[in-house]
Alpha/beta hydrolase
Amino acid sequence: MNRLDIEEFGIVGLSVGGMWGAELAALAPERVKVLALMDSYLGDETPEARQRYMGMLAAVEQAGAITSPLLEYIAAQFYSDEVPDALSQPLLAHLQSLPAARLRESIVPLGRMIFGR
């Protein structure tokens, strides 16, 4: 929003987007005027889940890529086993194509903020 010179705004957050939106609203309450959360959880992660997510983020940061085992985990989180591969492949291909710098400077820090809450 800073780059767009937008001072005040609303957020509609779905799932992890809701987690991010809540964090942003807490960091900049004077700027976030409306917040709608859908299918989101704002409570603490269990210690086991937090450790698993932080381990995944550390692996992405170290590799500079999202590797196959993690892609399989992500697919299982977003798609049913009954979904044809043709429907999940665009997301997985996009995730594999993300440059290392973007992963390290954007995705990993955002993930740490969300799952470290």
About this structure: The chain has two domains: 1-43, 47-115. The first helix runs from residue 16 to 27.
